[in-house]
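lol ok so funny story. i was supposed to be doing the assay writeup but got distracted and ended up predicting the structure for this chain instead. priorities right. anyway since i did it might as well share w the group, maybe its usefull for someone
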Amino acid sequence: MVSNKRNKLWLIWFVPIVIDICVVSFFGLKYLDFGTEKVYFFNVDYLNNKEFLFVAFTAVSWIISTYFIKFYKIDRYTTDFKILSLLLKQFLLFTLIVYTFIGIFRSVDIQATVTLKYLIISFSIIGVIKLFVQYINRKSAIFLKDNLKEVIIVGNGEGAKELEQLFHSKKELGFKLLNVYNKSNSNHHVSESLRFIEQHVDLDEIYCAIDELAEEEINEFVRLASLNNIQLKFIPEANKHHTKRLIIDYYNYQPILSIKQAALNNEVNQFIKRIFDVVFSVFIIVFVLSWVTIILGLLIKLESRGSVFYKHTRHGINYKPFTCYKFRSLRNVKFPISEQVIEDDTRVTRIGRFIRRTSIDELPQFVNVLLGDMSVVGPRPHMLPYTSAYAKKIDKYEFAYRHMVKPGITGLAQIKGFRGEIKNDEDIINRVKYDIFYIENWSLLLDIKIIVQTFFNIVTGEDKAY
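and the output, tada:
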């Protein structure tokens, strides 16, 4: 259920967009000379009206351009200089947009001074409104205590103490510090903070002193924050080098680290990827898995007793466990759940060796994709016992970063040769390296390229497919 606070924040984000579009549209109609010549783009007359087309073009292009430069990603802590910088970026970008419209409709009279006057007046008004609203926004935090960010701090170091003092002394920043937790305080121990988060899902931000927490505690904070849409930020140790996976902000000279938003955490990209996943998985299930299951089911049953399918639990997005499906390729004998399949493994059946080498055993995972547990392409999910073991060998930020997206049936690391058994530290380090690259550089074209390369590797054979 979406909280009233988040609905209010959405309204605060939406209203400025409407106001800004009205400003640039109104002054555009006032200053630009559209002439009397008609255009004939559409069959309906009013759609060929240049004034109407200008407003429609302006609205769509404004929304798209401001989205890409994060024009409306402003909070109370955003400085006036940052706001002016965003205004300048949008001014330059929107100037190109206006001249693009003029280029399309050549009958619009091109007057450089008038066009420049229109842009300067429009952006001056938008800038004044933006700075005034920011001023009121900061003051409301002091006098009205309105729309405050509810936060907690986990840690007891110098950075945590400085941040606590900052939140108490600078009310205009709009932070409401609910609690401070650390390992030396029995009443507010770190373990209590996890229970507090579970009970307060409307919490806005969590500030963790990263070097005071164990690996398991960090993973739990990442999981809870992602599950409840809470922003997780880290208070670093002084003079320590930080991975580029993190964004560094400064609160009164105190550095604060946030996990960089993955391309796949973008809602538009998620929607595009999900549509592709559903369409592709339905196609495979209907036209491939439907008849392959019948044939393989008979062959698997003939060679060894047991189920046709093998179900096992793996970590998915935000470390959430899910049941992963495969065709059974091992003999139905008891063995440790954490034991990897190795080269020339005697547990693998004859038909199992074939389906593992050709990756046909992975086909049932398209059902996982359809259910939303997995994606067609993404970082491969690990068995539960291995997740914590691998986490100790990798930069803690990077390992948490790869779990911010859905795991995949195939992935960039797999087509680069890092699939199957992890024999040494170098294998998992390289696997995570390619996973991170994929997350940061995702595109639909990259997904298609990985799928095509996967099929090529299946046909030509892979050394680690056993």
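The chain is about 50% helix and 10% strand. The chain has three domains: 4-143, 149-260, 267-460.
back to the writeup now i swear
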